[in-house]
Amino acid sequence: MSDFMNSAATRRLEEYFDTIGNVLDNKAQRASFAIYAMGLFGDGERKSIEPIACRVCTNPEDADAAHQRLLHFATDAKWSDHGVRRAAAKYAVDAMTKHEPIEVSIVDDTGFLKQGKHSVGVQRQYTGSAGKITNCQIGVSLSVATRREHIPIDFDLYLPISWTEDEKRRREARIPDDIVFKTKPELALAMIRHAVADEIPLGVLLGDSAYGTSAKFRCEVRELGLHYTLGVDPKTTVWCLDKRENPIGEKISVRDLAKRIDQQNGFRRCTWRKGTKEDLSAKFAVRRVGAVNYAGHAEPLWLIIEWRDGESEPANYFFSSLSKPLNKKRLIRIAMQRWRTERVYEDLKNELGLDHFEGRRYSGWHHHVSVALCCYAFIVAERVRRFPPSSRWPMEDYPQPLAA
Question: Which of 11, 47, 122, 149 could, after both became Cys, cross-link 356 (CB 3.0–4.6 A)?
Answer without folding.
Answer: 47
